[in-house]
Amino acid sequence: MMNEEDDNIYNLLTEYRERLKDNFLSIYLWNVDFILMNEVSIPCRLLITQKECGFLSGELYSQGVNEVNSGEILSLPLWLAKDLYSRGFIDINYPDFLSPKMMNALKTDPCSIDLAQISPYFFEVGIELSKIFKDEVFLKALFEAFKTRLEQLYLFTQCSNHCSINQVTLFRGNTDYMGIFLNTLTSCEKGILEECSFYQEDMDCRFYCVRKAM
């Protein structure tokens, strides 16, 4: 059973503030993608009535209400939702962009979905939540979708440098498909593409220098 101090989210957030002061040089605090991923909103249900926490609900706060009742639905950033869930303050639900409908779409054709529009941190947030819920089926669906999309990225990096226009039509027979697909990439996928492109350019440069030296 929690004592009065332990079951107060306001005290917990004060503790966070002091902890941030002590760890302000942490590498994670200066990683923009890490920060933005942890700021993704997650739907949660409060399990314990909280005083001085009206700011957790924009609607209640705008009405001047400073107490949040048990059962209230809140939209909390991932970093806070994970910690409050582990302490028994809240229940967590999958956000809409990770709904069963979305999972079915991923299983059908993951490359046709505009994940950049849905959430730039689609896979990262999905993996974090699947670990919380120990949802093996959900996690497997994410990995399979990620693998399929990486295969398309690999084909693009190979064909963009070494294939003719006719060969590029292996992308589902549509030369426009590459451009459309690249616009759907998540932040992680864009990072992988940039790394691959840099590596490919480096290799091309090395081969060119070798040829010139021969």
TrEMBL record:
One GO term describing the cellular component: GINS complex
Annotated DNA replication complex GINS protein PSF3 N-terminal domain residues: 30-85
Span of domain GINS subunit: 98-193
Superkingdom of source: Eukaryota
Nucleus as UniProt keyword: yes
Keywords: DNA replication, Nucleus
KW Cytoplasm (keyword) present: no
Cell location: Nucleus
One Gene Ontology biological process: mitotic DNA replication initiation
PANTHER family (UniProt xref): DNA REPLICATION COMPLEX GINS PROTEIN PSF3
Family statement: Belongs to the GINS3/PSF3 family.
Name listed for the protein in its UniProt record: Uncharacterized protein
Organism per entry: Cryptosporidium muris (strain RN66)
Phylogenetic lineage: Eukaryota, Sar, Alveolata, Apicomplexa, Conoidasida
